[in-house]
Structures are given as structure tokens and as C-alpha cells.
Design goal:
This is proline dehydrogenase. The chain has 324 residues and is an alpha/beta fold. It is built from 14 helices and eight strands.
Length: 324
């Protein structure tokens, strides 16, 4: 089994997700998750803003199957919106429909999302809809479409590994879009599975939206992609206010600051909350470089208990093999 598959399976384990919350962020995740409370995430936002970095804030949540959980998540997101507004922070919201009741009832989810987007619209705060696995894709796009009929502060994510990604980007090019490669394990019937194909489609989507779209958020840690984008925007004279680079909190901090110094718009994806485990595992699954960046913090004695001794041993063995 590949390392990516190990971490993806761990991200979907409800028992481990629950156990992780008992440890807080002591297992290395504090390096990539900006705390567990609204106060903590706001403090991080102000620190990054002072460095010229904008933020998009994700209130983490997994396995939401009860309406009470979804409503609690909505209230937490509304609290963040209020703080962003009152403290005049350079930040916006990223959210997952599944946390707001998508797996319970789509109409119930829509009502929760409407409340969030309406409040954010009142304060001129952008709301980005994160996309998850293929099973939720059609429902998520329906929700984006419905809310886009009422509000102009809504955008979404296009995942380059999906075969239909170009059709999606064409349909939603009037929105502000974040373009990513994709973080879930999908069938070859609906998604590219080779790194070469995903990378090629990723570049194709970025170029298309830079030329035809409203605003493009380019979410990558790959300096090769970043250099390609720099050359492309220079060649096509695309203004810097039409796009931004995005990276995850805790990764490639020097490169984030370097891009700001070069005059590019930059936004850090800032996750927070007690329900951090699934997010953390998916970040480790995305690319081997992500594992390397946080290996020293992750693989402690406590983490071996949480991840499972076998999985941690597999991952460490994989990293050892790669470095030899």
C-alpha cells in the first residue's frame, strides 16, 4: 500500500479522529493547524497580516451526521466572520458543505450556508466553498449555484484530478476560484490517477482561468508551478490583482514571504479547531514533501499510539527508503 493510501485511510477513521481530539494539537499538528479557538486563529491572522499575507479561515470538522453538530459549526463560522469584521482583518472564509449538514439533508445544509453567506455579504467578506470527494461534488456545485443567484461573495474550488474539471471551470469562470490538484482517493473512472496527468491538467486549468476567469487562487507548494505561473502572467500581461498564490499554514513559510516581497498577492489557508485529525492526515497524504516537512514533529511516541504503530512504522520506513 502506498504512503498516500495509508494516510487517506487514517483520515477516514472515526475512532482515531475522536481519539485525536483528546491529545489536542500536541502530536505535531500544531505546526499546520492554527489553534483550536477563535481567539487563537484571530491572533494568527493578525500576525500573518502584519507580514503582508491574507488568510482564508477553515473551521475544521469531520463526520457531521447530526443537525446539532452542523448548527454548532455554523455558529462557530459566524463568530469568526464577526471577529474578522470587527477587527478589520484581511481574511475570508473557507468552508465545507459536509460540515454544515450536506450528508444529513441538502436543503438543511443550504439554509445553514445561506445564513453564513448572507452575514459575510453584509460585511463584504468572501466565502469559498471547498470541494471534497466525488460523491459530494454534484451536490456541492448545486449549493454554490443556488447561493450565487443571491450573493456575489461566493466562490469555490476546482480539483484538477477530476476528468470533468475543465467543464466545471468553464461553467464557474465568473466566480473567484481556487484551483487545487485534489486530496481524496478517487476512481480512475472519474479522476486522473497519475501525477503526470494531474500536473498537466492543473497547469491547463490555471492558465485557462487566468486568461478567462474572474480571479484565480493558485493553491500549490510546488515552486516549479509557481515559476511557470510567474512566466505565464508576465508573457500575457496579467495584472497581479487578478490572482494570488495560496499555501497551507505551516508549509514553506520562507517561500510565502518571498512571494510577498516580490509583490505577488498571497493568501495562507488557515485551519483551526479541535477536529483537526482528518485535515492533518489528508495534508500528509497529498505529497511526500508534506510528510518530510513535518516528520520531526509528527512521529513521536504519542503519535505512534494515535496513528497506529503499524502505520507509523510503514511511513517512517517509506521516508527512510526515499532518503537512502
Amino acid at each position: 500500500m502506498a504512503l498516500k493510501d495509508v494516510f487517506l485511510q487514517l483520515s477516514e477513521n472515526r475512532a482515531l479522529n475522536k481519539a485525536a481530539q483528546k491529545y489536542g494539537l500536541r502530536l505535531g499538528a500544531q505546526n499546520v493547524v492554527a489553534g483550536t479557538t477563535v481567539d487563537e486563529v484571530m491572533s494568527t491572522i493578525h500576525t500573518l497580516n502584519a507580514q503582508g499575507i491574507a488568510c482564508t479561515v477553515d473551521n475544521l470538522g469531520e463526520f457531521v451526521f447530526e443537525k446539532e453538530q452542523a448548527i454548532a459549526a455554523k455558529q462557530q463560522i459566524l463568530a469568526v466572520i464577526e471577529r474578522i469584521h470587527t477587527e478589520q482583518a484581511d481574511a475570508h472564509i473557507s468552508l465545507k458543505p459536509s460540515q454544515l449538514g450536506q450528508d444529513i439533508d441538502e436543503e438543511f445544509c443550504y439554509e445553514n450556508l445561506y445564513d453564513i453567506v448572507a452575514r459575510a455579504h453584509e460585511y463584504d467578506i468572501f466565502v469559498n466553498f471547498d470541494m471534497e470527494n466525488y460523491a459530494r461534488l454534484a451536490s456541492s456545485f448545486r449549493l454554490v449555484t443556488r447561493l450565487g443567484e443571491h450573493f456575489d461573495n461566493v466562490g469555490t474550488v476546482i480539483q484538477a484530478y477530476f476528468l470533468e474539471a475543465m467543464d466545471n471551470i468553464e461553467q464557474y469562470k465568473h466566480l473567484r476560484l481556487r484551483i487545487v490538484k485534489g486530496a481524496y482517493k478517487e476512481s480512475p473512472e472519474v479522476a486522473y490517477t497519475s501525477k503526470q496527468d494531474i500536473d498537466a491538467n492543473y497547469i491547463k486549468l490555471i492558465e485557462y482561468h487566468l486568461l478567462h476567469g474572474k480571479f484565480t487562487s493558485i493553491a500549490t507548494h510546488d515552486h516549479h508551478v509557481i515559476e511557470h505561473v510567474k512566466r505565464f502572467v508576465a508573457e500575457h500581461q496579467i495584472p497581479y490583482d487578478k490572482f494570488e498564490f495560496q499555501m497551507l499554514y505551516g508549509f514553506r513559510k520562507d517561500l510565502q514571504l518571498a512571494l510577498v516581497r516580490e509583490g505577488y498577492q498571497f493568501c495562507t489557508y488557515l485551519p483551526f479547531g479541535e477536529d483537526w485529525y482528518g485535515y492533518f492526515m489528508r495534508r500528509l497524504a497529498e505529497r511526500p514533501q508534506n510528510v518530510t516537512l513535518v516528520t520531526k514533529q509528527i512521529f513521536t511516541k504519542e503519535t505512534n499510539v494515535l496513528l497506529g504503530v503499524g502505520a507509523a512504522a510503514f511511513a517512517l520506513g517509506y521516508l527512510t527508503k526515499r532518503s537512502s
